[in-house]
């Protein structure tokens, strides 16, 4: 059975309510034009973020750890989506987030 859901995962920076020059990393899950945001509770300097690659720039230990964390979290969300899809349930962004 083919799924008719549209799914995307975006990594973005939320720059408000944080000290100047820093931002909090968020994921945005979009399924069938419905969105859910997830805060990863990780701060990063705005100038050390690569928007085109959706990851931190650099080769320091902290940067590698952060990028590895981001990959793991993306994988968890994708696995949640796949599990719901295999179960044949109605998939929403809020359900994947939960």
Short description:
With 98 residues, the chain is α+β, with helices and mostly antiparallel strands. The chain has helices at residues 61-87, 93-97, and strands spanning 7-14, 22-31, 34-45, 49-50, 55-56. It has a three-stranded antiparallel sheet with strand order 1-2-3. Strands 4-5 form a two-stranded antiparallel sheet.
List the helices and strands and how they pair.
Layout: E1 7-14, E2 22-31, E3 34-45, E4 49-50, E5 55-56, H1 61-87, H2 93-97
Q: What features would you describe in this structure?
A:
By secondary structure, the protein is of the alpha+beta class. The protein has one domain. The protein is 33% helix and 35% strand. It is built from 2 helices and 5 strands. The strands form 2 sheets. A 3-stranded antiparallel beta sheet has the order 1-2-3. The mean pLDDT is 89.
Labels describing this entry:
98 residues, alpha+beta, three-stranded antiparallel beta sheet, two-stranded antiparallel ribbon, 33% helix, 35% strand
Number of helices: 2
Q: Strand order across the biggest sheet?
A: 1-2-3
Class of secondary structure makeup = alpha+beta
Helix fraction?
A: 25-40%
Which residues sit in consecutive blocks of at least 5 with pLDDT less than 50? none
Principal-axis shape equals elongated
Order of helices and strands: EEEEEHH
What number is the mean pLDDT?
89
Overall number of strands: 5
| First-to-last CA distance | 25 Å
Could you tell me the strand content as a percent range?
25-35%
Instruction: Output the radius of gyration.
Output: 15 Å
